[in-house]
## 1
Amino acid sequence: MKRLSIDEILTKSELRDTQITVQGWIRNERGNAYVRFINLNDGSTIHNLQVVADVNNFSEEVRKDWNTGASLKVEGKLVASQGKGQNVELLAEKITLLGASDAEKYPMQPKAHSMEFLRENAHLRMRTQTFGAIFRIRHGLAFAIHQYFHERGFYYWHSPIITASDAEGAGEMFRVTTLNLENPPKKEGKIDTEADFFGKATNLTVSGQLEGELGAMGLGKVYTFGPTFRAENSNTARHLAEFWMIEPEMAFYDLKDNMDLVEDFLKYLINFALEKYADDLQFLDERFEKENKQKKKEEQAEMGLIEKLRFVVANDFERLTYTEAIDILLQSNHYKKKKFQYDVKWGVDLQSEHERYLVEKHFKKPVILTNYPKAIKAFYMREDEPLADGKETVSAMDVLFPGIGEIVGGSQREERLERLQARTDEMGISEELWWYLDTRRFGSVPHSGFGLGFERLVLFVTGMGNIRDVIPFPRTPKNAEF
Ligand code: ATP
Ligand code: MN
């Protein structure tokens, strides 16, 4: 018999009144002395298939195993449902137990669990409705990212995971070594990195950008989509030590082209989720609403989840410079009433509270901030003409989203060898980055790119509150279980 998923069984009308076989896990079981109802789920959809079992046909011995979490194979006839809540149900003729589950011990009981409890049971949480929905959407977004770029002539480019350059400066790195840490070989009192596997010190990458730029300098348009690692000791709801990043890099793109691309890209992805994962989003929308009601008035979101996603797709992002943003902050009542914890003045890096004020209170929509002070941004960003008052900026762009803050960081890259070299000289990294500087030596072109944190996108689309809940097995300080 053809293998059928519960999603197919519930949506294909031609299956009605036919014999089918289905396999899945019991979400819950209830009923009376004559008939039992088993809700079965196989991960293909948020919806369960209701299996109806006549007590006369199944012995007590068989029925005692119908516990939440157990897995079954059920054969029978799919018929129109008598009850509310589903169109079809399966009249069971044969039920085979695939794997038993001890009702007392199974952690995923059919009731509301705290997010913390579900994190501690991350090996089983994908069997809940919430996490099923999240991980289906996560998959869908990953697929849509490849589709978007492929259809627009970008090549999927694999930057290395192990790197010898720690020049990017995006964050603290994790060391990769095969040296015996108990008793490492030493040279002049220091660990002898020449004796290490690669003959030099190596780390896990914090970003695939620099190698992405190398790809763009021959292939034109490339994108990476891979894991990146940052030993960030910040225990926030928006940082992971291991996260996935999408980094497109485009030859012949200036900052404006870069902004146009990122806006179109984000709208495409959100729209894809709205169209293809409507049922999962409907469920998450209701969950979001419940959570929202429990928050303090001033922290409540003004829009529902689906409403917010539609709003982002339908409206232009606000584009302004860092300098304009500082002026807005300085003139805000929020600032005048001293409600910001961190200082606001030209030259400081914007804190999350400032970003969120701009996005959630002032503009009430996504914002692209550009032309940040040179001193607070990375060395590879293109220097702008100095401002009238002599202040120095670079062609950076950060995309800020409501409830998230920074979701994308990008820039036009410095393509002029003398300027770039001056900056790498200052930092003492010119020698190490000889290969990077070579791209500016041989056929340099204006180019741009950005990095989208995949989990921040999934966080936004699913309306979840903590980044630990949108990746199957989160890696955070003091936590690498599973
Ligand atoms: P933040 O200021 O939020 O720490 P960042 O300035 O360090 O971000 P970038 O180095 O520009 O971020 O990285 C590009 C993108 O990667 C960010 O816009 C964000 O979406 C994502 N990102 C950065 N750090 C993390 C992290 N630790 N966990 C998850 N996503 C991250
Ligand atoms: Mn960071």
## 2
Amino acid sequence: MKTALVTGASSGIGYACAEILAKNGFNLILNARRSGRIEELCSKLSHEFNVECLPLIFDVRDRTGVINAIGSIPENFGNINLLINNAGLAAGLSELADGDMDDWDQMIDTNVKGLLYVSRAVIPGMKQRGHGHIINIGSIAGAEVYPKGNVYCATKHAVASLSKAMRMELVADNIKVTLIAPGAAETEFSLVRFKGDENKAKSIYKGFEPLTALDIANCVEFCVNLPEHVNIDELVVKATAQATVGLIHRKP
Ligand code: NDP
Ligand code: 8X3
């Protein structure tokens, strides 16, 4: 049986990926900071799909915590075939001139450094086994930029660059690297960005049908079920009503 490690599995895209991977028979190692949600999801998936599920609670920003947690994974979960680097967030929406530096630190530490720490801990095992698949959840904000999205866009540009670098460095080790770059998907993303302001969060998805977390999980399912010799390098996935990051056709 194959094993997948999904970061940020307590909500949204990570949660939906965990469900779809369980359906596909993967044993799961599920990470996030909210332990209650992860434990609940683990017990739900192991009962529903008869797979093994290990909750692995850590903050991807905590370098020592990441190394210790991944180092503590028991042997029966040790052969990680699939890593989904999904944990991430946008914090705030403001111009650089009046940006909140704590928000900047949180986005850079989570979206870039967290992805690096987790990858650094998992890749050596994949190299040793000569097999693996890393799926990085980037964003259309990793190819485009929008006013007030400055630092979030920079972190997702970094994810796009790191995905390319990983693909070049790991090609000789038979490790696939896929970048999935979603457009607007209705998850807890905007609620987090606007620090719990539900009205602001809802307004982002007003007047059009956004992507769902399941839409992205379906893309993950497609990528992981391809034959051994086929890899999707990059997938850009947007709602039909979204042409570019800033051009969304909204009905009144
Ligand atoms: P959610 O807010 O619903 O989920 C984010 C997940 O990341 C949660 O499980 C959260 O868990 C986890 N997370 C956040 N910070 C940390 C941390 N420091 N350590 C461990 N886990 C963390 O948003 P989405 O599902 O939408 O976001 C998932 C990914 O998709 C992100 O990388 C985001 O940038 C990307 N994305 C989202 C888009 C969208 O429109 N929704 C579009 C493009 C990309 P917890 O809080 O429990 O730690
Ligand atoms: C999330 C999509 O447009 O809010 O990565 O940056 S956007």
